[in-house]
Write a structure and sequence with these properties.
The protein is mainly α and about 475 residues long. It is about 80% helix and about 0% strand. Helix 5 (about 70-80) runs parallel beside helix 11. The longest helix is centred in the middle third of the chain and has 49 residues, at about 155-200.
Length: about 475
Amino acid sequence: MDFFIMVVVYFVVLLLLGFLAYKKTGKTPEDYFLANRSFGSIVLFFTLIATNFSAFTFLGFAGNAYKTGFGQYGIMGFGTAMMAIMFYIIGRKVWRLGKEKKYITPPELIGDRFNSYGLRLLFMGVMVIFTIPYLAVQAIGAGIIIQSMANIGWQVGAVITMIIIMFYVLFGGMRGSGWTDIIQGIVMILAMLFAVVLIAINLGGFEAANIAAYNVKPELFTRPGGKGVFLPQIWFSFMLLWVFADPMFPQIFSRFYTAKNEKSLKTSMIFYPVVVSFLFLFPVLIGVWAHGAGVILLEGEYDTVLPLMVKKFAPSVYGFVMVGALAALMSTADSQLLSLSTILARDLPFKKFKISEIIVGKILVMALSVFTILYVVSGYNPKAGIMGTLVSTTFSGLAVLCPTAIAALYWKKATKYGCIGSIILGELSVFLFQFNIIQGFGFLPAIWGVLVSFLALIFISYLEKWVTTVQYHT
């Protein structure tokens, strides 16, 4: 009952913030979709943190750590912290161009840079196709959390959560998303902190919890870790994956436009890795400690380890921690829902019908919500694991876009056909390596995809320039 009350109160607060944001939001696309580029350092920092911490932060991290050990912290904590480099390399330039040329979506910038609507649509298509599974995972994570607390199926919880998200996004747009992200960011950070501290206390302290886990599963404390996962190729792959993939999340890329000034971006760049490297250790600790605490899970159940540990060893904060987990995934889902609807409303030729972009965007928010609900209830198998699902789909597919984005911002000799070839060949290579049609020698398919994308971009761009030069002289 306590959990039910907390969830109801939490959902009501989100809806109220969405309504308040609606009252403050103007009737221009720039205001609804980007909060009129007004996010200062605090709002931007929290919205970036909350947007990037999702279902896998509370469920997937701990589940993978239960299976593979402390190596999970290395590839996630350090690897994701490195993403802050891209706040400077990509985010700063995106903010400047967005402010100067009034860009609202990522594909808009790319298409305009190369004067190619076809490239704009291709970039858009990849962003949308590979983000939808990520959006669905947030709803699925919510269902798993609510199922652990109430006697209902996880699909029901997922549907309810998705409906709540849809409504406050409809009301508040980007401003509502940013405001709710502050609340959700604070809640999820406190929830994770309470969880790890109280579990440690009930296990006899941090040292005792580690010793107990080491006595049961010593391989979790060394490389290559449990099941021999953390080979050098995998370690290297994940270090690079986050650098290339995370800035291409449409919900992250779009937030570069929302900064009030360059100082806001710099502040986020400095504090983001500090929070990430600190906070990401907690779910990994809980996942590893579960072995010493006698928690035995079967394949396909690993993502439930954090809720089980909190329920068993920190029952006094169980409800609050689960609300924190909901905050993590909902803050990501609302951002994804808004960014996808913005991209589709802005980059598809809806202007021909002379309908307001905001109206189109809201219709698309509802359509994407319904699509996600149908995806959730159509037979998705949660035993596939949250982390595995995302690495093999969203992260790999979006990482391939990064070479084109970097070229658009920094390489004057890049061409539209170079970028088109880069994306198509990169995605094709991910597919070939993912299904072992071509052997990847232990590296993640995404890394091969990014490498092929860079090489194709350079080769085709120079080839196109050479052909143009030859034709000119003949």
